[in-house]
């Protein structure tokens, strides 16, 4: 699961990236793309590990991409096309919007900043869609019949984009199988992050993303400082500024919700591990996340809900209480399921 940070120059993307990944970029690296991978904090994994005392504990992971921005793009005050090429491979976008006074004294301009990037996304998509339509038209002149469904979908995309409406507003287009290869930017789920001053954790009254976007606030500089502290220092800092959850924790949870992701677990003496899947994933497809051979030789899934295991105290007792059940290929794995796959290859 990978999410890309986007936003105008000066929005605070680097600050937020460092807060999320608990890293510190050397100034010489700030013109390079950076990928930070973080463990997903999950107390269920902690408790399972305490119960099984495995040789290895593996948490789920989320990757955050900070795209490189050329100096020329900074001078123009907008992200250049190379940034869009970098984030096309991401599953979702984190749109950072400045809600603090700029270094040159400029006040925040939330609506203008938010719309500037959203329009860039739509323009990039419009170029891609129109080029494909032009190609289809040329092929049709040469006698090749275009795919009617693809043609209709692309025409709908162009109409919405010309109307300055991002494709994420239209789930049937955003998730259309025939459009996946285009990786439309405005179709990607988007979490808006307001980069707030130290003393303000509230959403802005003038919230341009209130209509249809998931959003949250991060006191960027404050959280950046927090990410660089030792655990004992951080604990005192959290209390002093009344921070309940770190930026990393909040953004990770929001990222999961944004993409409809859940976690299931495999347990044992060798390893306790969290696996990330899409909500609604069938057991046979969840098996493939672990290994393709398990999907190929799938027989049954032995399933125990995390809460039932904790209530029983151990697996054997949960089995005695008939909490462990056998499920087939089509069973939809639920968040918190502990799964043992039976297979034969």
Automatic annotation (TrEMBL):
It comes from the Bacteria. Residues 260-343 form the TGS domain. Its cofactor is Mg(2+). One of its GO terms (molecular function) is ATP hydrolysis activity. Gene3D superfamilies: 3.10.20.30, P-loop containing nucleotide triphosphate hydrolases (3.40.50.300), TGS-like domain (1.10.150.300). Keywords: ATP-binding, Metal-binding, Nucleotide-binding. InterPro entries: ATPase_YchF/OLA1, Beta-grasp_dom_sf, GTP-bd, P-loop_NTPase, TGS, TGS-like, TGS-like_dom_sf, YchF_C. One of its GO terms (cellular component) is cytoplasm. SUPFAM superfamilies: P-loop containing nucleoside triphosphate hydrolases, TGS-like. This is YchF family ATPase. It comes from Desulfatitalea alkaliphila.
